[in-house]
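seq/struct pair 1
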Amino acid sequence: MSDKLQQDHHKVTPQNNEAIKSASPFTNENGEEIEESSGGPNYIQGRGAQYNTKNRFHKNESTREHIEGIDNWEEGNVKTQYIEQQSKTIVNKVESKDVGMGYSMNPYAGCEHGCIYCYARNVHEYWGYSAGLDFEQKIIIKKNAPQLLRKFLMHPKWDATPIMLSGNTDCYQPAEQKYRLTRGLLEVCNEFNQPVGILTKNSWILKDKDVLQEMAKKKIVSAMVSITSFNEDLRRIMEPRTTTAKQKLKVINELSKAGVRMGVMMGPMIPGLNEHEMQRIMKAAADNGATFTAYTFIRLNGAIKFLFHDWLYKNFPNHADKVWHLIEQSHDGKVNDTRWGVRMRGEGHIAEMVAQQYKKYGKLYKMNAEEWSLDTSLFKRPGIQGSLF
């Protein structure tokens, strides 16, 4: 890994509600100071969301959404709960046209990483929980995930279409250290020669280097590491339980040297917060062995709109209006966007600038230059003679 990489680092000092400025501002691409804050004395450290939003499926639910109007109340940082269950399915068909995957599998629902912008938060409402703190504190463990995958792959009509691991929540979140379900899924994929793609923010993926290396020799695995910022204070409040950017680069470096095709996901790009870091992220990833890349532009659908707004104004009170309006300008005056082909990229001047940066620096650092695809021809069902095809 390059010794030249220096992480941004500015200390964030807890402040009270009357003096919410940070002692150490950082700057955006225009050199303008962005003042940081810990959000006040009741701010829940180590969590992205600061409260539970209403579950839209619970008609009679009572919630405390307008925290600023409640005296002497705080949510409290509850220890993460692992809720074990026997699931019925593990592989899901993805209907979204602009996501770039046909099938996905997620051994965990909810995610302790706590990324404030995560689109998967809304899915937690289907499980009966809130998209807010519940999403980070109540993690559903699909204990029979490897067995379900084996059963799915044995179906005679399955055609070895690549499956995305972590299409929703991160498969290497802290729960993996205890349950090792992702490891089990990879071992099944390796046995069947089932192609799989991986997306993660966690360095725990290195624990599976042995099986990933075996799969890479057969061209049945590729992996992307998500990096949104080199500013450690921004990452700590925006993605509180993810690994550092420095460690993520180590993941890319180590796995690429082991023969695994590695890429970097830059998402989401948030105007006024991290979009100016795109070139730096792409160059650092390329220097450490990444050969392909992707990005998304921030959009705030469902409950995420309220959670992100609360987070933004607590942590960047003097800069929040500008960031919020820049997001609105990139989604036709709204912060949410459901239009196919537009919602993941945005529109308007800011979104176009980000798209141009992506194209320019992707070409400069030779990202996505190679013709490459996962190999589906090796797929086999154990105990069955002959080729699938």
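seq/struct pair 2
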Amino acid sequence: MIMAAISLMALGARTQDASWYFMTGPHFVDYYAPDGGGYLATDNWNGDAMPKQFYVGRSLIYGLELGTSLSLLQIQDFPDELVNKNFLDWDLMLSYKPLYKKVINENHWFDPYLWIGGGLTRINEETNPLVNVGAGIDFWLNEWAAFNVHTAYDAAMGDGKAYTHHGVGVKFRIKGNKGDRGAIEPMDLSTEKKQEINDQIRFAAKNIQFETSSDVIRQESYKDLDNIVSIMKNFPNTKFDIHGHTDNTGDDAMNLDLSKRRSASVKKYFMDKGIDGSRLFPEGYGETKPIATNDTPEGRAQNRRVEIKLR
């Protein structure tokens, strides 16, 4: 199991999320439920409101998360005579989150998961290995914190007794920083790949249109903007410049202001679609960087544009 965990951590070096998770809260143990006492019947639960369960985990790839937990407790209800009431449960677990893409890219608040694992349990001065399966839900309150509920079935080996294990808690997420090896940085992309991304974005950006003399994006532009969003989400730690331009019709200062507002409007659209604003760098140049003549209607139309490219 230890070797498997090391291998998964190595795979996690290429994760798109690279987040760390920390959780603590109260938990409850039931030794009677496996023998027909009722899985969620609370009559024989051992536990109190004190936070005596602790979890640390790291996201890997494809919605997988590797974590470890430590649970401590004083047992009162036990099928046999208690020589020592101190309870310990240590687990190493591998979780799968089926909605991980929505949670990462769209700030989705409902985050269920399943896990398998194993570890050690100690009660009545006897230590036994165990295997377990479980399920839980993170209810994300914001980008960094969630309310958690979880439950598991723990099967102790040898002479150990099986039990059900339930808990609630507060979970905190610390996202991988910009230097995290798990992120796909622009420097990891080949020159050919960068060119391919820029070409795809340039093609889509040609169709970005605004209401006349306004920074309001026209609805027919949404499809192309959404295509750009998909590209950005495929390379989640890349950064993008958003440059607004106008033709030379009208006042220079007004054109400069309009180009800045239009690039900011595009940034806001991307952020509303789940793109982190720290990845986006809007700027406006007014009429100062034409790509065609301003002496013809066709040329002025080409100069009224928003350019988006890898930074």
